[in-house]
Amino acid sequence: MDRPAARTAADRSAAAPAPRLSYLIGRVSQGVRSALQQRLRAYGLTVPEYTALSVLQTRPGLSNAQLARRSLITPQSMNQVVAALERRDLIARAPDPRHRRILRTTLTPAADRLLDELAGVVDTFERELLADLSASEGEQLVAALRSCMRRLAAGIDAGA
After folding, report:
1. Which of 12, 46, 50, 104 is the most exposed place for a label (fewest CB within 10 A)?
2. Does residue 160 lie within any of the structural domains?
3. CA distances from 29 to 56, 64, 155 (A)
């Protein structure tokens, strides 16, 4: 009795379903975080710290809760990030004049200098990440990711 020939790795790969979009985004996210952490280590920053500083660069005056949401971490984790950044004199916090219990966070001149220094590091990393894409493809990818972010912010949930 003849047995079917064993399938080759190429046959199995061709027959396998393509990875899901959510899986691909997750893998890219993990890879970006890991690569960024390696580059930030030399500056004594973690990815959450850098993310918080970057958010505050474009949106100064956020509360801890707002900063946590925009930095994609919990408010409890943001408390630790804020404490570390305050110890390094990279942020300043002041009470909101209308809601004295809310502290508004801004960058210090030291943070501005650090972010200026890191801009080249992050720009180089992003160019390396997109090296296989044309300029137009890179722009389309950024536009598509922004669209996904808007959809998520608009309230896509598990039941939708």
Report:
1. 12
2. no
3. 21, 24, 21
